[in-house]
Amino acid sequence: MTSGPANTDPACTELPSAARGGPVSHAFSRVARLHRIAAGKMLKGAGIYPGQEFLMMYLWDTGAVRQSEVIKAIGLDPSTVTKMLQRLEQAGHVSRCPDPDDRRAVLVDATEDSCALHSEVERAWTDLEEHTLAGLDRGEREELARLLAKVEENLRRETEDCPELRHSPGC
Hints:
The chain contains seven helices and three strands, in the order H-H-H-E-H-H-E-E-H-H. Helix 2 (about 25-45) packs antiparallel against helix 6 (about 115-130). It starts with 9 loop residues before the first helix and ends in a 12-residue tail after the last helix. The protein has helices at about 10-15, 25-45, 50-60, 65-75, 80-90, 115-130, 140-160; strands spanning about 65, 95-100, 100-110. The protein is mainly alpha-helical. The longest helix has 22 residues, at about 25-45. Residues about 1-5 and about 165-170 have low confidence and may be disordered. A hairpin with a 2-residue loop joins strand 2 (about 95-100) and strand 3.
């Protein structure tokens, strides 16, 4: 173990031996974890948890859709989406009703009451963007977005045969 300042967490400064062949991938994992924690902190004020905003964003943009389409669109396990929908419905943000064209299917829609949530989520994501990219100028932000799009495409190709990611967000 290398020495460093007494108040420095080795998990944040040292690369584990098994990750030495993938320092960028290790950094991505750390950044993704911290980004999700920061998102949770910012979404807490809106009364929702990380992941629920993606479901709401989809509904705000599409309108009423079958629950099966929501599951495909956000790329999560059906039981996870069902639990999210239950919580969002209890909070008054979504409504569910039988599909008039197929009584076996359920339609899900954002409620009018979710308009305030839309503004809060938009504000949280704007704040998250600013905190995440603080210290980067416009050119650096654009370059980061360009590079991340390339990385995303590489990962999309690598995972295209994974059933759990066939309908992931952004497809």
